[in-house]
Write a structure and sequence with these properties.
By secondary structure, the chain is of the alpha+beta class. The chain is 34% helix and 21% strand. Strands 42-43-44-45-49 form a 5-stranded mixed beta sheet, with helices on one face. It is flat. Mean pLDDT is 81; it is low at 214-235, 271-279, 741-837, 1293-1339, 1393-1404 and 1416-1423.
C-alpha cells in the first residue's frame, strides 16, 4: 500500500444525463457538487499498486455542475467541457486545471451537454426551455437553435455525421436535428411516453450490423414516425438507442425514421425480497453502446444492476447480468451514468456512477467489478480510528450513513462498508469502544444515540433517551452514580456519555440502551453543592486513565471532575467562547507527565494547552481556578473544531479550523510545524493515523475526507491576511445552500447542528425533478453560513474585477420603489364629493321582513287577510298555517312562536351574508344569550361586546365565555389581550404561563410581579427563562438583570463577563463584589486588568485591580511591569506598535536605581511599609505558578510572567530572604533565556544586578542551600556580558545599544553552532559593520571591566554542567534517531506489499534510502552501522549517568557550557592575547571531552586543528 495522499471525494451528482466521462489512456472525471473530480485509472494488475487515484479537481463553477464531457479527439484529450446551474459552459484544460474558455449564452438552466465526436471544437448544450446552443471553441462563436418548446433531458452528437444531433425531451419525444440547416428536424421519433434519460448512437455507420426484421414491431401503432422523410444520403444508415423512464429501451432506424426494436426492462429479484411490478420504482435508464461490440448494448436497471443486451436475437430479449457470479458487487441503487474507458494496455473498462454513492469500474471482457471508489453525500462531521482494530476508520457523514474504512486493506485502497440502518439523520459524532471489537457509538443531528456492531449486519441498538438537539460529542468512560451502584457483574465497566446541543450530558448504559439515560448534572449538583445555574455543556472528554472527566461549556469555561462522584477539582477560565473540542494527551509517550496535558479549542481561534498534573495530584479540597495556560497556540484565523494528539510523538497536536486548514503543532515549543490547505471548505474533524506517524485524515464541509502527509506540506503555519482571503474565496466557490422554509434551530456551531432535509433519497419525491446529491437532494447541507459579500461569487466567476454589480442594481431597484412610495404620499388628498361625506345608513336588523313588506299591493293585501284569519279563527287550518310559514314577517303581529321563527330566518340570513354580529344582536333580543355565546365561541366569533354582556347569562357562563375568548385570541396571535382577559377572571398563573410560552417575557414579569407573592417560584423561573434566552441572543446586560431579579447573582456576574471586553469585565467584577462573590470578583478583575494591559492602559489596569483587596499583590506586579515597559520604551527596545500608552503619574526619580524607584512607589502608593506586609504579598504571589517560556511565547505575556518573578525577588529582598531573591531572579532570567529574548534578559540583569552578583554572594554566605541557584544566576549574568563583549568586537564603534535595538532571538543550539563555525561577526548581526581584516588586528584597548568579565568566564567552564548537558544531548539525539528509525521501518513495512513487483514502489525505495542514510549517520567513530540494541544500550547508559548527578545541579538551568567555550575561542581568535592561554586550553579540553554529539562535532574539529 503506497504512501501517497488519498481523497474520499463528494458523491457524483444525481439525475444528470451526462456528468461523468473518460478518455483513452485512463483519465476519468465526474461532476460532484460545484466541481469536477479527476481520477487517473491505471492497469490495476500489479498487486499493491492502486488501480486508480483521485488526482485533482476542476474548481470554478459557483453552482451544481450538471454536465461533463471530454473531447474525444486524439491530441486534445486534455480538454473537457462542463455545464452548470450557474448558467455557464466552461472549457477546461485538465493538465493545468484552468478554464480555457467559457460562455453564458443560455438564459435557462442547462440540462444537457456533449462535445461533438466529429468536430474538434464543437460543444453542444441544451436547456430546460428547449434552447440548443452550438459553441465553436476555436472561433469563439455560438449558434442559438430553438427546436421544440419542451424540456431537454439529454442530447448526443452523432459519431458519424458531424451535423446530426439527437435530443431527448422530458415528455418522451426524441428528435434528430441537422445543425447545419438551422436545427431542421430530420426525424421526430415518437414512442416513449416519459423522460428520455440517455441516447446512444450505434458505433458503426450503416444498418447492416444488426439483422433486425424491420417489420417485427409494425403491429405496435405507437411507434410511428411523425412525418414521412425522403431517404436522403444524410438520413441513411445508422441506429440510435434511447433509454426512458417508461422502463423501455428503443432502437430506432435512421434510414426508416422509426423504431425497430423495444427492450422492456426485466424485474429482477434481489436479495431482501422480490419487487412488485405494480409499484412504480424509481428508475434512471442510462445506456452505453460498446464501440467494439455493436451487437451488444449495456443498460442500467431498476435496482442498480447493469445488463448487457444481445441485439442479434431481438425476438428473445436476451441479456446478461453484470457480476452475476459474485454477490454484493453490483450497485444497490439506480445508476446514472455509464462511460467507457480504454486503458493504456487497451483493456476495455466501463465506469458507472450511482445513487448508492459508489463509482464502480467494470471489466467489459468478464463483466466483473474491478474496483469501487466510495464517496460522501454530506459533510464529514466526525472521524474516529478504532483502538482495537487498527487502521479501521469510522466516518460520520451528513448523508445519514456511517462509513467504516479499512485503511490497511491489501485488496483495495478504499475498502469501505456503509451503515445506514436506523440512522436516518446526519451523523455528527462517533466513538469506538476502547476494548470491545466492532462496537461503535454514534450520535445524530436529531439527538439520537446508538450503538453499531460493525462486524454484523444487525441494525443498531438505539438509546431510548434522545437529546433535544444535535449530539455534539460521545465518550466512553467509567460509570458514575447512579449507574455505578451495584456489584461488578451488575454494571458495565464502561458507559457511554453523550453531550447534546441543549447543553446536557447523558450517561447511557450500553447493556441496556432501552433503559433511561441519566443526566450527570444532578450528580454534579449534589456532589459539589452547587447553588447557581450549571453552565450549558458543549463538550465532554475523559482522561485516558478514566479517573478525570473534562466538561467544556458554552461560556468558554472548562471544568475538571474526579471520579467516582464527579467532584469538581478545577475550573479553567480561558476561552470565554463556546468550547468545541477537548483532547487529553496519550499515556504511552516517553514522558509520562505529558498525559496530564489537555488541549482545548473554542469559537476563538486560539488553542490552549493546560498542564493539570499538579492539580490532579494535589487533589484540592475546594476547586482551583486556572486563568493561565501552559501553552498557547496562535495562528488560526477562525474557530477551532477539532483537536487530536499524535500517538507517535510527544506533545505533537493537529488542529482543524473553520479557516479551511489543518495545522500540526509542536505544543511544548509552541511551534507551528506544517499546515494543510487541501480542503475547499471549513474543517470539521481531524484524526492522526494510529500506524503512520506522517499521516493525518481530515474531514470538512466540502464533502471530502483527505488523507495527507505532514512531510509533503509546503506551508508551516495557517494563512494570514491575503492568503486567508484567497482560502475564503475558494470556500465561497462552494454551492450556497438553498434556503429552506423550515425554521432553523439555534446553532452551537454549524458542524454540530443543522436542519436536516431528509438526505436519504427516499425523501425525494419522484416528481420533484432532478434533485442532485450535492445541493437539492439533501444538503446544500444547511449550514449557518457567515454573511457573504453579495458580489464575491460574481467576481469569482468572471475572473476579473467586478465592482459589486448585484449590489448596485439592488440599490437602484430599491431607490425606484422608494421614490414611488414617497411620490404617492406627497400627493394632496383629493376633495371628496359631498354626497360621499354623508353618513352611511346603518344596516337593517330585519332586512328580510322589511323586503317582504315592500312587495306588490296584492301581496300586502293577502298579508292582511292571512293575519286577520290567524288572529280571529279559533283553530288554524292547514292552508293558513302554510301561508303563515311562508309569510314569517307576520311574526311581528302574531304570537311569540312565529316571531322566534322570524328571528331565526333573519339570523340565518345574516350569517349567510357574513354579518355574525347582527345575528348575535337578534339572539340577544330573543333573550338567548347563552346560545349566542356558545355559537360565537364555536365559530370563533366572540367579541369584546359579547363577553362584556356574558355576566347577564350567569357567573359560570361569564367565566366560560372569557376562557373561550382567551383561546380565540391566542389563535389570532393576540396573546397579551388574551392574558388580560384571563386576569379578569383571576387566572393569574395561566396568564403568566401564556405570555411566557409565547415569549412575552417583559409583560409576563410585569403581571407576575404585580399579582404574585415576591417569593413565588413562578417569578424566579420566569426571570431565569428570560435570562437564558437573552443570553443566547447576546443581550448580556439585560440577561444579568434577569439573573439578579432571580437572585442568581453568580450567573449575573458570569453573563456580564461573557462579552470579554474590559468594560464588561469591570462591571461584572464590581457586581460580583457587591453581591459577595469574592472569588469570582477577583478573577474577573484580574481578567479586566489583563485586557487593559494589552491596550497598554496602565491606569485602567490598576483601577481594575483596586476592585478587589486580594489583588493587591497583583497590583505590585503590574506596577513593576509598567516601570519595566516604560524603561524598555525609553530605551527604544519595546516592540509595541499600538496606540500611545496611558501611564500612571507616579512620582519617580529617573536618576535613582530601578529597584529603589519601584519600592518607593510601592510604599507611597500601595502602603507597603512593614516587613509583615511585604511577607504577606510575597506568599500570595508565590502560590501562583506560570508555565515555562518558549520561542513562541508572546512578548506581552512573557513580560508579565518575568515581572511576576521580579516582584517576588524585590519583595523577598525587602524582607531579607535572600534565598528566595536569588531563585526568583534566576527564574526571570531563565524565562527570557528560554524565550530567546536576549534583550529582556540583559535589561533584567542591568536593572536588578547593576553591580553584578557579588552583593548577593555576600548576603547568602557559603553554606546556603541556594548556592547552586546563585551559581546558575551568576553564570547567566556572565553569559550575557560575554555575548555583549563579543558583539562589540564586531563593530568599529563598540556600542552594545546599537545591537540591542535590533532585538535578538536566541538561536537554537544548531543555528548557534553554525553561526559560530563561520567565525564571521557580520552574520551575528544583520546590521553589523564589516569586520576589520584579521591580518591587521584592530587597536583595541580593553577596559578593566572587560578583563574582569573575561576572567569571570571561568565560572562558565563548569565540568559538572558540561557533563550533564552532554548526557542530555546524547539522550535527545538517540531518542531522535530511534524515533526516525521506527518511522522509516513503518514506511518500509507499508511498502512491503509491492516487493514482488519488478517496478518497486517509490515510497519503498525512499524508505530504504533514508533508512540506510540514517544508519550511515549513526556510524559515528565505528565503521559499521549502529544497531537498535546498541542505541538502546547507549540510551540506558546515558540515563544512568543522568541519575548520578546531584539534584542541585539538575534542578537549576545553566548556560550551555560548550557554547560559552566556542564564544570565548572566537574572541581569542579575533583578538589574540585578550584571552589567557589557560582559559583557551580549558575551553578546548571541554570541547574535546564533551563535544561528541552531532551538533558540536564539526565545531570542535575546527578549533582542535
Amino acid at each position: 500500500m503506497g504512501q501517497e495522499p488519498r481523497t474520499l471525494p463528494p458523491s457524483p451528482n444525481w439525475y444528470c444525463a451526462r456528468c461523468s466521462d473518460a478518455v483513452p489512456g485512463g483519465l476519468f472525471g465526474f461532476a460532484a457538487r460545484t466541481s469536477v473530480f479527476l481520477v487517473r485509472v491505471g492497469q490495476g494488475t500489479c498487486p499493491g499498486t492502486p488501480p486508480f487515484r483521485v488526482i485533482g479537481e476542476l474548481v470554478g463553477h459557483t453552482e451544481r455542475v450538471s454536465g461533463f464531457t471530454f473531447s474525444h479527439h486524439p491530441g486534445q484529450y486534455s480538454l473537457c467541457a462542463t455545464s452548470s446551474d450557474d448558467g455557464t459552459v466552461k472549457i477546461w484544460n485538465v493538465e493545468t486545471k484552468t478554464v480555457v474558455a467559457e460562455h453564458a449564452v443560455h438564459q435557462h438552466t442547462i440540462s444537457a451537454l456533449h462535445w461533438s465526436p466529429r468536430v474538434k471544437d464543437l460543444i453542444v448544450s441544451g436547456d430546460e426551455k428547449g434552447v440548443v446552443i452550438c459553441y465553436w471553441l476555436n472561433r469563439n462563436d455560438s449558434q442559438h437553435l430553438f427546436i421544440e418548446p419542451r424540456t431537454i433531458f439529454c442530447l448526443t452528437c452523432s459519431p458519424h455525421q458531424e451535423d446530426l444531433v439527437a435530443i431527448g425531451y422530458k415528455d418522451g419525444i426524441v428528435v434528430i436535428i441537422d445543425i447545419s440547416k438551422k436545427g431542421e428536424v430530420i426525424h421526430r421519433l415518437r414512442g416513449h411516453d416519459d423522460e428520455i434519460h440517455s441516447i446512444a448512437w450505434c458505433p458503426l455507420p450503416g444498418e447492416d450490423c444488426l439483422s433486425i426484421n424491420q417489420e417485427e414491431n409494425s403491429e405496435e401503432p405507437e411507434i410511428l414516425n411523425g412525418k414521412i422523410i425522403k431517404q436522403t444520403p444524410v438520413t441513411k444508415g445508422c441506429y440510435l438507442a434511447t433509454g426512458s423512464k417508461d422502463q423501455t429501451i428503443r432502437i430506432w432506424s435512421c434510414s426508416k425514421g422509426r423504431g425497430v426494436m423495444i427492450l422492456k426492462l426485466p424485474f429482477l429479484k434481489r436479495r431482501g425480497g422480490g419487487m412488485d411490478p405494480t409499484v412504480k420504482e424509481r428508475l434512471w435508464l442510462t445506456l452505453h453502446w460498446p464501440s467494439d461490440q455493436p451487437t451488444q448494448l449495456v443498460s442500467s436497471c431498476f435496482g442498480g444492476e447493469l445488463l448487457l443486451w444481445d441485439l442479434t436475437q431481438s425476438w428473445r430479449r436476451k441479456y446478461t447480468l453484470f457480476s452475476a457470479s459474485s454477490e454484493g458487487q453490483n450497485h444497490s441503487r439506480i445508476v446514472f451514468n455509464l462511460c467507457p474507458l480504454q486503458t493504456e494496455d487497451n483493456k476495455q473498462l466501463l465506469i458507472s456512477t450511482s445513487m448508492d454513492r459508489d463509482v464502480k469500474c467494470w471489466d467489459m471482457a468478464t463483466l466483473e467489478c474491478c474496483w469501487t471508489l466510495p464517496s460522501l453525500g454530506g459533510f464529514a462531521y466526525s472521524l474516529a480510528f478504532s483502538p482495537v482494530d487498527l487502521g479501521c476508520l469510522a466516518i460520520g457523514v451528513g448523508d445519514g450513513m456511517i462509513r467504516v474504512w479499512n485503511t490497511l486493506s491489501m485488496k483495495s485502497n478504499y475498502d469501505m462498508k456503509n451503515f445506514w440502518q436506523g440512522v436516518k439523520s446526519k451523523v455528527t459524532a462517533l466513538c469506538w469502544h476502547p476494548t470491545k471489537e466492532g462496537c461503535l457509538a454514534f450520535g445524530t443531528d436529531d439527538g439520537k444515540v446508538g450503538l453499531y456492531d460493525t462486524y454484523s449486519n444487525k441494525p443498531p441498538q438505539i438509546s431510548s433517551t434522545y437529546h433535544k438537539k444535535t449530539v455534539y460529542t460521545l465518550a466512553w468512560g467509567p460509570p458514575v452514580p447512579p449507574m455505578s451502584l451495584g456489584g461488578e457483574g451488575d454494571r458495565p465497566s464502561l458507559t457511554l456519555y453523550s453531550c447534546g446541543g441543549e447543553g446536557i450530558v447523558l450517561q447511557h448504559n450500553p447493556w441496556k440502551l432501552s433503559g433511561e439515560a441519566f443526566d450527570i448534572n444532578k450528580l454534579i449538583r449534589d456532589t459539589n453543592s452547587v447553588k447557581y445555574k450549571l453552565p450549558v455543556h458543549t463538550e465532554i472528554s475523559w482522561k485516558a486513565d478514566g479517573k478525570i472527566m473534562a466538561l467544556g461549556n458554552e461560556d468558554g469555561s472548562i471544568e475538571i471532575f474526579q471520579v467516582p462522584n464527579l467532584k469538581l477539582i478545577c475550573s479553567i477560565q480561558q476561552h470565554h467562547k463556546l468550547v468545541n473540542t477537548i483532547s487529553w494527551h496519550h499515556e504511552h509517550g516517553s514522558q509520562p507527565e505529558l498525559s496530564y496535558l489537555m488541549a482545548s479549542g473554542s469559537n476563538n481561534a486560539v488553542i490552549y494547552v493546560h498542564n493539570l498534573k499538579a492539580i490532579i495530584e494535589s487533589n484540592p479540597e475546594s476547586p482551583v481556578t486556572i486563568t493561565e495556560p501552559y501553552r498557547t497556540l496562535s495562528g488560526h484565523t477562525a474557530k477551532i473544531t477539532s483537536l487530536a494528539w499524535s500517538p507517535h510523538h510527544d506533545g505533537r497536536l493537529v488542529s482543524a479550523s473553520y479557516d479551511g486548514t489543518a495545522q500540526v503543532w509542536d505544543t511544548l515549543g509552541e511551534e507551528p510545524l506544517c499546515n494543510f490547505r487541501g480542503h475547499r471548505g471549513r474543517l470539521l474533524c481531524v484524526v492522526w493515523s494510529p500506524l503512520d506517524p506522517d499521516c493525518i485524515y481530515s474531514g470538512a464541509d466540502d464533502f471530502c475526507v483527505y488523507r495527507w502527509l505532514t512531510s509533503m506540506q509546503d506551508h508551516s503555519r495557517p494563512p494570514q491576511g491575503k492568503k486567508s482571503i484567497e482560502l475564503e474565496k475558494k470556500r465561497l466557490s462552494q454551492p450556497k445552500p438553498k434556503p429552506k422554509k423550515k425554521k432553523k434551530p439555534t446553532l452551537r456551531m454549524p458542524i454540530k447542528q443543522e436542519s436536516y432535509d431528509g438526505n436519504e433519497e427516499e425523501s425525494i419525491k419522484e416528481n420533484s425533478g432532478p434533485a442532485e446529491n450535492g445541493v437539492s437532494d439533501q444538503e446544500g447541507e444547511e449550514e449557518a453560513q457567515e454573511p457573504e459579500h453579495p458580489c464575491s461569487l460574481a467576481s469569482m466567476v468572471s475572473r476579473e474585477p467586478v465592482i459589486c454589480a448585484p449590489v448596485s442594481l439592488g440599490l437602484e431597484k430599491s431607490k425606484v420603489t422608494i421614490n414611488k412610495v414617497t411620490s404617492l404620499k406627497k400627493e394632496p388628498p383629493k376633495e371628496k364629493p359631498e354626497a360621499l361625506i354623508k353618513k352611511r345608513k346603518a344596516r337593517s336588523m330585519l332586512p328580510l321582513s322589511t323586503s317582504l313588506d315592500h312587495r306588490s299591493k296584492e301581496e300586502l293585501h293577502q298579508d292582511c287577510l292571512v293575519l286577520a284569519t290567524v288572529k280571529h279563527s279559533q283553530e288554524l287550518k292547514e292552508d293558513v298555517s302554510t301561508d303563515l310559514e311562508e309569510r314569517f314577517h307576520l311574526g311581528l303581529f302574531t304570537d311569540r312562536t312565529t316571531l322566534y321563527r322570524m328571528i331565526e330566518v333573519e339570523g340565518k340570513g345574516h350569517l349567510e351574508n357574513g354579518h355574525p354580529e347582527l345575528f348575535h344582536q337578534l339572539m340577544l333580543w330573543k333573550g338567548d344569550l347563552k346560545g349566542v355565546l356558545q355559537t360565537a365561541a364555536e365559530r370563533g366569533e366572540l367579541t369584546d361586546n359579547l363577553v362584556a354582556m356574558a355576566p347577564v347569562a350567569g357567573y359560570h357562563m361569564w367565566l366560560w365565555a372569557v376562557e373561550a375568548f382567551a383561546k380565540q385570541l391566542c389563535f389570532q396571535d393576540q396573546y397579551v389581550k388574551a392574558a388580560s382577559h384571563l386576569l379578569s377572571i383571576h387566572k393569574v398563573y395561566e396568564a403568566v404561563e401564556l405570555l411566557k410560552s409565547n415569549h412575552f417575557y417583559r409583560e409576563a414579569v410585569a403581571i407576575a410581579k404585580a399579582r404574585l407573592r415576591p417569593d413565588d417560584p413562578v417569578l424566579k423561573d420566569l426571570y431565569l427563562s428570560w435570562g437564558t434566552i437573552l443570553e443566547k441572543d447576546g443581550h448580556y446586560a439585560m440577561a444579568a438583570k434577569c439573573y439578579l431579579g432571580a437572585t442568581s447573582t453568580y450567573d449575573a456576574a458570569k453573563v456580564l463577563a461573557k462579552k470579554g471586553d474590559a468594560a464588561s469585565l469591570r462591571t461584572a467584577a464590581e457586581l460580583a463584589t457587591i453581591v459577595g462573590e469574592e472569588e469570582l470578583s477577583a478573577s474577573l478583575a484580574l481578567r479586566c486588568a489583563q485586557e487593559l494591559l494589552l491596550a497598554r492602559n496602565w491606569v485602567g489596569a490598576q483601577e481594575a485591580l483596586q476592585l478587589h483587596e486580594s489583588l493587591k499583590s497583583q497590583r505590585l506586579v503590574f506596577c513593576l511591569l509598567e516601570f519595566l515597559s516604560k524603561h524598555l520604551e525609553d530605551r527604544q527596545l519595546s516592540d509595541c506598535k499600538s496606540s500611545s500608552p496611558s501611564y500612571n503619574a507616579w512620582p519617580t526619580g529617573t536618576e535613582r536605581p530601578f529597584v529603589e524607584r519601584v519600592t518607593a512607589v510601592w510604599k507611597s502608593i500601595f502602603g507597603l511599609e512593614t516587613p509583615l506586609q511585604f511577607q504577606a504579598a510575597f506568599q500570595k504571589l508565590q502560590s501562583i505558578e506560570y508555565p515555562s517560556a518558549t520561542n513562541n511565547t508572546p512578548s506581552k505575556q512573557l513580560l508579565l510572567h518575568i515581572c511576576h518573578d521580579l516582584t517576588l525577588a524585590v519583595l523577598s529582598q525587602e524582607v531579607a530572604t535572600w534565598d528566595e531573591t536569588v531563585k526568583a531572579l534566576l527564574r526571570a532570567v531563565v524565562r527570557s533565556y528560554d524565550a530567546g529574548n536576549f534583550t529582556i534578559m540583559q535589561e533584567v540583569c542591568s536593572a536588578f544586578l547593576p553591580e553584578g552578583c557579588d552583593h548577593l554572594r555576600a548576603k547568602l554566605g557559603d553554606q546556603s542551600p541556594s548556592t547552586p541557584a546563585f551559581k546558575s544566576l551568576e553564570a547567566f549574568f556572565i553569559y550575557g556580558r560575554l555575548y555583549e563583549f563579543w558583539w562589540s568586537l564586531s563593530r568599529p564603534y563598540p556600542e552594545s545599544s546599537v545591537w540591542v535595538r535590533v532585538g535578538h532571538r536566541r538561536k537554537t543550539s544548531v543555528e548557534e553552532r553554525q553561526h559560530l563555525d563561520n567565525a564571521s561577526p557580520e552574520e551575528s548581526d544583520p546590521e553589523a559593520a564589516p569586520q576589520p581584516d584579521p591580518s591587521e588586528p584592530p587597536d583595541l584597548r580593553f577596559t578593566e571591566e572587560s578583563e574582569q568579565m573575561l576572567n569571570a568566564c571561568n565560572e562558565l567552564f563548569s565540568e559538572k554542567h558540561a557533563s550533564l548537558q552532554n548526557s542530555q544531548r546524547t539522550i535527545a539525539e538517540i531518542q531522535d534517531i530511534l524515533a526516525e528509525m521506527i518511522r522509516q521501518h513503518q514506511k518500509s513495512q507499508f511498502c512491503k506489499s509491492s516487493a514482488n513487483d519488478p517496478e518497486r514502489n517509490k515510497p519503498e525505495q525512499e524508505a530504504e534510502r533514508s533508512l540506510s542514510s540514517l544508519q550511515s549517520q549513526c556510524k559515528e567513530e565505528e565503521n559499521e552501522p549502529v544497531s537498535l540494541p546498541e542505541l538502546t544500550k547507549r540510551l540506558t547508559e546515558a540515563n544512568e549517568r543522568m541519575a548520578k548527578f546531584p539534584e542541585s545541579i539538575k534542578s537549576w538551568p545553566f548556560p550551555d557550557v560548550l557554547e560559552c567555550c566556542l564564544v570565548l575561542l572566537h574572541i581569542g581568535s579575533q583578538c589574540p592575547g585578550c584571552v589567557t592561554q589557560e582559559m583557551r586550553q580549558k575551553a578546548q579540553e571541554l570541547l574535546q571531552k564533551y563535544g561528541s554529539t552531532k551538533v558540536y562535532k564539526r565545531h570542535c574539529q575546527t578549533f582542535s586543528t
